Structure formats: C-alpha cells, structure tokens
Amino acid sequence: MSAVFDVDMLQGLATALRASRGFAHKRDIAAVLPQLGPSSFATAVPNGDDCAVLPDADGQGHLLLAIEGLVQDFVEQQPWFAGYSAVMVNLSDIAAMGGRALAVVDALWAGSAAQGRDVLAGMRAASERYGVPLVGGHTNLRSASGQLAVAVLGRAQRLISSFAAQPGDRVLVAVDLRGQWQGDAPFWNASTTAPAERLRGDMALLPALAEAGLVDAGKDISMAGMLGTALMLLECSGVGATVDLARLPRPASVPDWSAPGDAAAAQRLRWLNAFPSFGYVLSVRPAQADDTIARFAQRGIACADVGTVHRGSVLALQLGDARVPLWDLAAQPFIAPAVEPRRAA
Question: In this structure, are residues 88 and 134 in contact, taking their beta carbons and an 8 Å threshold?
C-alpha cells in the first residue's frame, strides 16, 4: 500500500469520523458546559469527566455519580436492550474513574405499559448480571414517546480521570472482542450472553488497576467511538496524541487496513464508530504499560499500545508512513471542558 494511497484513505476516514453521529452528540456537550459554570461545591475533577466526583464521608476516598440519557430512537426500537445498556454504560462510567458501583436509579418515560415493561426488564437483567441493585426512580407510562435516563452511585479509593494524561504516556485501547454486532446498530455487544461472574470480574479490573497505581488517566469508550473518546480525554488533559490505526484492537470480522474495497472500508469505519459494551482508552506511563496490558490479557480482553501522548492540541491518525490530523483542539474545541492547555516547556 503506497503512502499516497494511505494519506487519501486517512483523509477520507477523518472526514467521515468528524461527520459521524457520535461526534455530533458529544459536541453538544460544548454548548452545555459553559452554562454550568464553576461549582460552589468542591469536586475532585472539573466538569467533563465520566462522573461527578464528591468527597466520601470517611475522607479516604471518593463518591462517584454518573448519569446517562438514551437517544430516543434507541429506546423506541430496542426497549429491552436500551434498558440493559442504560445500566451497563453507567457502570462502565463508574469503572472508568476507578470506582465500584453501589446502586442504580432511573427515570423512565414510556408510551405504553408494554414498552415500560420491556425497558425495565432490560434494566433489571443488567442490574442482576452485574450485581448492582436497582433501588428506585421515576416512571411515566403516558408519554408521547419512550425516553430513559439512568444514574449510578459508586465509590473509588483512587481515581482514574480524563484530566490526568501526560506527554510521553502510552495510549492503550482495551476492548472485549468476545461479542457481536447488535443488529444494524453501532453497538458491539459482549455483555448480554457473557457469564455474570465474568462481567463482574471484568468491571472490577479498572478500579484494581487504579488501586495498584498502574492507571490514573482514561475514559470509557462511548458513542463517539475509540477516537472520539480519545479526543475527549486529550482535550480534558490539554495534550495531543498520535494513534496508529493498524494497532487498534478489532474483531476478526473487521478487515485489516490492507484489505481493499468500499465494503472493507465501511466495516472499518463502523468499528471505529462502535460503542462497545466494554471498552476503554487509557493514558498510561510507559513503565506501567506492559503490566496494564497483561492484566487485561489475563481476563481475555484485548488491549494494545496504539500511540503516544504528546504536547500540543492535535489528535493525529497514522497508518504506515502516512499521518493526518483528525482534530485540532486549539482550533476547534470538542466538548470544551474548563481546562487550561499545557504549554510547551
């Protein structure tokens, strides 16, 4: 594959990613964060992380509060899986910050009792499989359409934060590839048929990495996919990075980057936009990278060193000898967290 062809492919890929639905939804955050303003309540991290972080009463750790709202068409088309996912993604947010989840609450609007039952059945299934109780919430069965939001409370001894990546870090991407696509949706489902014991152990891996001092910077992969999630992590930390696409974990059904043709390109783009049931982008000190990768491997989870964090504001994509910018955060904010960019030494 020639370098010229690589550049053309990377430029087209970058354009497609910037126009994706996941990127658009995440960029909505930039319109909201400035309106929140600085909080009068002391928190350990600014707005823009996966959870709000509050001091624990014992003074020895942190309380984590996460909330996710589901897009309306998802709730309408797949109510059971939407309910399941609403719990699952919040648990992932808690784990992404080094925490263990304690309890789940929900706010459900449904157009019928039947739709409400399906959503709640999915929520209960996830709650039982992950071992986190569903303790209450709000229900309206007379809504014009189905909508759902779920919140989870957790606790962390040591934090993993989006604001802690440093120049020189290795970019690690960890994804559970033991799954399949959820129909035509952009969801990679490695959860609903997995053993409950395995799910609970996998979710405990992130807090264990934090408590061992191996990881302090990272973010769970959300609907913006691996690269959109990396962008949010880099923006919060005021740094840039280069990611080698060929080193990203991928399932066997996704063609490698040497495979030609539009069909192969479409499958690769779908994977880059995927919202996996278990997936994280981590920024890890070089001395801890191999140990971190090994701990994921011990649980059968693919984890790869895919790039380098550096000073600056650009997330660049690399493939062979070709390198193109995906996004310059100094020129155009992504979620616009309240953080000062790092200055060159």
Answer: no
Query: What pLDDT, in 10s, does the model give residues 246-281?
Result: 999 999 999 999 899 999 999 999 999 999 999 999
Please name the residues in contact with 77: beta carbons below 8 A apart, sequence gap of 6 or more: none
Neighbours of 31 (CB within 10 A): 10
Q: Are 232 and 334 in contact (CB under 8 A)?
A: yes
Distances (CA, A) of 177 to 133, 140, 227, 299: 27, 37, 17, 12
Q: Which residue has the tokens 């594959």?
A: 1
Asked if 68 contacts 176 with a C-beta cutoff of 8 angstroms, the reply is no
Q: Read off the pLDDT of each residue in 168-190 and give the average, rounded to a whole number.
A: 95
CA dist., res. 155 & res. 60, Å (int): 10
Domains and CATH numbers, the chain: 1-38+161-345 (3.90.650.10), 50-157 (3.30.1330.10)
263-291: b or e for each residue (b if 16 or more CB lie within 10 Å)? Answer: eebebbbebbbbbbbbbbbbbbbeebbee
> Per-residue pLDDT averaged across 187-202, rounded?
97
Residue 236, both tokens: 């919060």
Read off the pLDDT of each residue in 90-117 and give the average, rounded to a whole number: 94
In sequence order, what DSSP letters do the residues of 279-343 get, joined into one string?
EEEEEE-HHHHHHHHHHHHHTT-EEEEEEEEESSSEEEEEETTEEEEEEETTTS-SS--S-PPPP
- Amino acid in the structure at residue 293: I
pLDDT bucket at 308, cuts 50 / 70 / 90: very high
Mean pLDDT, to the nearest integer, of 336-343? 60
* pLDDT of amino acid 345: 30
Output the pTM of the full model. Answer: 0.92
